[in-house]
């Protein structure tokens, strides 16, 4: 029996001098989870930008810190391989996770340019789009359109016709998975932004937690945003599961203690929300 994958990625915790807006009850150090971040590089700059300067590699041709093994992987931004996405217009993609490595979902980055347009996922496949850079216009089969900026997201149920267009340099992270119908219930289109989601209680933990999708039965996976203070970590240790840690722009999946009551198929993408804190977006896929 194959163990389900759990993939996590946390981002750079290099302390910097500039201040950030407080998002927690006590204020200090937490990510504000707002759609705008004043000063410094873009909100999720470290997701796609190389962590090593060319001068670091001048005497090491072909050097990379990325490693893929059976039970762990190290994926640095400079190792992302972008190529045209099938059926998309003027868009490059880099696949991070796919069924080829045993996962039950696909996770990839999409770089859209002027005049770009998305393609539909395969029949029966649901899709979640999260905007890392730039902006998009989402059109759905009902005729409605939605403008999504950085830190905004959209969940598209399986078989919902839609299109995404951009006239600017835009980077998206996209999750796709074959939908598992539960008790003949069907999910709805969801469009939102991180800063509109309430903070949830996390007894015994130091991070701030926001859920982007409902936890009701029609939704067969979860999306979480976790905000950590520099140097903090998950305190709960219950089961051995796969996690994917990311530091200073480096993703790394490894077996490590991670507290969950149910082994699910999971995925996390490194998202740096402020320059003083650690944040991540997490995808938990599983049927109760």
From TrEMBL:
CDD domains: cupin_UGlyAH_N
Top-level taxon: Eukaryota
Keywords: Signal
GO molecular function: ureidoglycine aminohydrolase activity
The keyword Signal belongs to this UniProt entry's keyword annotation: yes
Signal peptide coordinates: 1-19
GO biological process, one term: purine nucleobase catabolic process
Membrane-traversing stretches: none
Record carries keyword Signal: yes
Protein name: Cupin type-1 domain-containing protein
């Amino acid at each position: 029996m194959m163990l389900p994958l759990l993939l996590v990625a946390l981002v750079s915790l290099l302390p910097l001098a500039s201040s950030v807006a407080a998002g927690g009850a006590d204020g200090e150090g937490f990510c504000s989870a707002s759609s705008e971040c004043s000063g410094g590089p873009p909100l999720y700059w470290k997701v796609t930008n190389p962590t090593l300067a060319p001068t670091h590699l001048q005497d090491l041709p072909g050097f990379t810190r990325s490693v893929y093994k059976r039970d762990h992987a190290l994926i640095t931004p400079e190792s992302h391989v972008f190529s045209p996405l099938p059926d998309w217009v003027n868009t490059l993609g880099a696949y991070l996770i796919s069924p080829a490595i045993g996962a039950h979902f696909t996770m990839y980055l999409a770089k859209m340019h002027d005049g770009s347009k998305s393609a539909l996922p395969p029949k029966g496949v649901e899709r979640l789009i999260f905007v890392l850079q730039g902006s998009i216009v989402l059109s759905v089969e009902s005729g409605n359109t939605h403008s999504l900026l950085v830190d905004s997201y959209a969940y598209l149920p399986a078989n919902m016709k839609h299109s995404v267009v951009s006239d600017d340099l835009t980077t998206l992270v996209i999750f796709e998975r074959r939908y598992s119908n539960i008790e003949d219930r069907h999910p709805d289109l969801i469009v939102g932004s991180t800063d509109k989601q309430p903070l949830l209680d996390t007894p015994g933990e130091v991070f701030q937690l926001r859920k982007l999708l409902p936890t009701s039965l029609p939704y067969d996976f979860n999306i979480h945003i976790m905000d950590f203070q520099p140097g903090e970590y998950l305190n709960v240790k219950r089961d051995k599961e796969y996690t994917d840690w990311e530091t200073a722009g480096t993703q790394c999946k490894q077996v490590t203690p991670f507290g969950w009551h149910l082994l699910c198929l999971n995925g996390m993408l490194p998202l740096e929300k402020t320059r003083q804190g650690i944040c991540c977006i997490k995808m938990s896929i599983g049927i109760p």
